[in-house]
Design goal:
Layout: E1 11-15, H1 24-39, E2 43-46, H2 52-63, E3 68-73, H3 79-82, E4 88-92, H4 95-105, E5 108-111
Helix pairs in contact: 1-2
């Protein structure tokens, strides 16, 4: 197609839950997504919890030496709420600002199972 351009995916923003959920296939698929991102050289933007599906995707991407950026509202930064840092962390004031930053930094978006915050 004349005049078309190909865009390279450098950063994908993944929205998913901080819990594992009831369906174990979601855990396996989320971990696999992190592996695929890593193997294809795509960096991850996510909601910065190390628990549940968020933890699966971020750990798998980081294990493949990809840049991982977790964006977290400052109210959630208590250690018992977020767990160990996987990659870099960006603290924002509100959940709304978190969503705006995730959309600003991502080239593409994937939504996986999660709760109301997803």
């Amino acid at each position: 197609m004349e005049g078309s351009s190909v865009r390279t995916l450098e950063k994908i923003c993944v929205f998913c839950g901080a819990n594992y959920g009831k369906d174990k296939s979601h855990v396996k698929a989320t971990h696999r997504l992190g592996e695929v991102l890593g193997k294809r050289g795509i960096n991850l933007i996510y909601g910065r919890r190390s628990l549940g599906l968020m933890g699966c995707v971020s750990t798998a991407a980081a294990l493949h030496e990809r840049q991982v950026l977790g964006i977290i509202p400052s109210a959630f930064t208590k250690k018992n709420l977020i767990g160990k840092i996987c990659g870099k962390e960006l603290k924002v004031a509100t959940i709304h600002e978190r969503l705006l930053k995730m959309m600003e930094f991502g080239n593409a978006f994937i939504a996986l199972p999660g709760g109301f915050g997803t």
